[in-house]
Specification:
Radius of gyration: 12 Å
Structural class: mainly alpha
Shape: globular
Order of helices and strands: HHH
Distance between the termini: 34 Å
Length: 84
């Protein structure tokens, strides 16, 4: 996937992860995109290890893996910053 596709997927996944896990996050748009892109990488790796494929385009399974990974990254971020 090219960078623009990862950025779009990351933005959508980051926004949905923050919506599904509301809390005292101070990150703006850039932090949301970074959260989503890292989450897409994490979700894709986990899905690949489990034999479910991975993040391979703008489709529903990729979005689901990216959102799951983004939620995991968001939880870890909140634990590190003490906002849990």
């Amino acid at each position: 996937m090219d960078f623009l596709t990862w950025a779009i997927l990351g933005l959508v996944a980051g926004i949905l992860a923050k919506w599904l896990m509301p809390g005292p996050d101070s990150g703006g748009l850039i932090m949301t995109i970074l959260l989503g892109v890292v989450g897409a990488l994490v979700g894709g790796r986990i899905a690949g290890f489990m034999g479910w494929g991975g993040v391979n385009g703008l489709n529903l399974p990729s979005l689901a893996f990216a959102i799951g990974g983004s939620m995991a990254v968001l939880l870890i971020y909140r634990i590190i910053t003490g906002k849990v």
